[in-house]
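Hey, I was hoping to borrow your eyes for a little while. A protein chain has come my way and I'm curious about its shape. Take your time with it, there's no hurry, and the full record follows here:
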Amino acid sequence: MLIVRATKKLRDRIGPLDLRGDERSTTVLGEWYATRFGWRADVLLLVNEATLLPVLLPLAPAATALSRAADQIAAAMATYGASDAIIDAELEQMRPHRIGTTANRSVVGIMNEFGYLADVYRGRSGQPNLDELAARLATAPCSPLYRTHISPDRAFTALVRTIPRRGGAPTA
């Protein structure tokens, strides 16, 4: 099950909370945090709690945003070197999803920083290429990662290498 910890400004658009207190993410990547960029066409920002990897996609239509998010997360996983087997297993676990409130202030702070950076990177252009923008954000140094991998792209790549293959060995 995919757990999305959404900010209030996003929950107002995608629907009410439905996460029960005892539910946990069944995905290897763990929980994702999400917010909305109020650009001319709203954009959904998802940030993985473990690696801080950002994923961007159009918010509209808001009712299907989290269903579409799973496919966008899978595309990002492929970009950063996850095997097809890992992606398929993760997609299978992400199909059911729940919405909860944010619980990690550090990740919320990183989402705010990504918001500032995204505004700068997109400049005065209307709607940027969201995949390119997410890739650029993924290279930004993040203070929670300073002692390990520095940036989300490196943290994600390192995490993927630790995921065992179906035979049991890590995917180095």
Summary: Residues 2-162 form one domain. The longest helix spans residues 105-122. The chain has one domain: 2-162.
